Amino acid sequence: MKIAVIYSSITGNTKKIAKAIAQEIGADLFPVKSPPKLQDYDLIFLGSGTYGNRPHQSLISFIKKTNLSAKKVAGFMTYASNRKGLDFLEALLLDKKAKIIGLWGTTSRIIFILKRSHPDKSELSSALIFAKNIVQKIKKS
Ligand SMILES: Cc1cc2nc3c(=O)[nH]c(=O)nc-3n(C[C@H](O)[C@H](O)[C@H](O)COP(=O)(O)O)c2cc1C
């Protein structure tokens, strides 16, 4: 199974998670500004930080212009205060008729105080559990 992890990360938090996920599940990693051809992939992870209660505009634009119909997709986001961005991502993916396998998010509240500490070990390990569960789901289906 070929898996792509595509991320938008302005301050680096989501990138750390995207890299860890890609390494754990043997996926190819791409910044959203240089995405791969999606038809080459069986499963796509899409990740972003939250900006104004939404994924970053670069990820929104990518999703809007991309054919995701029936594509297996998993979404992950980091945020400071709430999951509204994840809800926005879900609605966008539903609108594009993607097959959402799972969604996951983590708070990065302390980023403003201790910038280097997030995502911390436990956030990274729950991201990896999320990613492995997604892969298991696909393998079983
Ligand atoms: C300009 C700006 C706007 C943000 N807006 C939100 C927001 O609306 N809701 C939220 O929960 N977090 C918000 N955050 C926090 C980021 O989503 C959080 O730090 C995230 O981990 C950044 O991800 P990135 O480093 O991958 O870009 C904002 C941060 C910045 C710098």
Q: Layout of helices and strands, plus pairs?
A:
Layout: E1 3-8, H1 13-25, E2 28-31, E3 43-51, E4 54-55, H2 57-65, E5 72-79, H3 84-95, E6 99-107, H4 121-140
Helix pairs in contact: 1-4
This protein binds flavin mononucleotide (FMN).
Flavin mononucleotide binds next to helix 1, strand 3 and strand 5.
Quick recap:
The chain has 141 residues and is of the alpha/beta class. The chain has helices at residues 13-25, 57-65, 84-95, 121-140; strands at 3-8, 28-31, 43-51, 54-55, 72-79, 99-107.
Verbal overview:
The protein has 141 residues and is α/β, with parallel strands linked by helices. It has a single domain (3-140), classed as Flavodoxin domain (Rossmann fold, 3-Layer(aba) Sandwich). It has helices at residues 13-25, 57-65, 84-95, 121-140, and strands at 3-8, 28-31, 43-51, 54-55, 72-79, 99-107. Strands 1, 2, 3, 4, 5 and 6 form a six-stranded mixed sheet that branches. Helix 3 links the parallel strand 5 and strand 6. The protein is globular. The mean pLDDT is 93. The structure holds flavin mononucleotide. Flavin mononucleotide is lined by residues 9-15, 49-53, 78-82, 108, 111.
Keywords:
alpha/beta; binds flavin mononucleotide; 141 residues; Rossmann fold; six-stranded mixed β-sheet
